[in-house]
Amino acid sequence: MNLVDAGLSPLGAGLGLLAGTGTWLALRGVPTFARPSLDARLAPHLADRPRGSRLLAPGRAPAGVVARVLGTAPGGLLAPLARAAARRSPSTTAVALRLQQAGSATTVEHYRAEQVVWGALGAAAALLLALVVVARGGPLLAAVLLVPAGAAAGVLARDQVLGRAVRLREERLLAELPTVAELLALAVGAGEGAVGALDRVSRTCRGELAGELRTTLADARAGTPLVTALARMGQRTSAAPLARFVDGVAVAVDMGSPLADVLTAQAQDVRQLARRRLVEAGGRKELAMLVPVVFLILPVTVVFAVYPGLAVLSLTP
Description:
- The protein is mainly α.
- Helices cover 76% and strands 0% of the residues.
- It has 12 helices and no strands.
- Helix 10 packs antiparallel against helix 11 (240-255).
């Protein structure tokens, strides 16, 4: 028996679901039901005060209503679901590293809450599709399986968006690396020290790599050794050429090697890598161009060459 036989319509079921969700959210906002837990009440009094520089503090999650809905604030509506997603997904350290590689100021908790929201939207879309399927007489089991599949698709879609952001930022970093390396080599060759060259280039240039240099300088000025700050910069990126560049600069600074020669050699290596990638991309495009030639143009050419002869043979008595 489907919804039509039972006297229900997909629109009515959707409106009922929407009304029930709104009522539940309204009841959760009532002070009687939204009292903070003991941990939430004691946390402000027991937490240690931050001792680091506020210039190095990570970006804060959105405040107000958005934070409450996304579960980033204590007692948020989606906080339990976000904690459950955190227990069943990759480690917090791996997610935090990927967020750093994407250059995002989003915290891990906010990212978990976004995953829950995307999963809820996917489940809602799948539920509407399931109602349509059942209303048209489709199998009930398929409609039931659509909801968890939609939720999983929403969570995976948020992860794919983060992965794409990491890849795009890596491409921008690699595109900026040769120019920044040559500018650093010029600054060092003109008599600047390592910190002075990094400061001059970070103030002159704009882009993702210049932002990483500014973060490294802020870390060094806060008391971290320059070699350690450069090592952290290499850990914040997933681009292997940039990691090698940072490691080379750190070793040159630590060992006292000629920094200008190291920077020039690193810039040449990155430019050669860019040329190899262009050649590889050209080879892939060349193979892709063969697909329409082989499967579209060549069959049409064969038909035009063979069909007249076949027509003449068929007309010959």
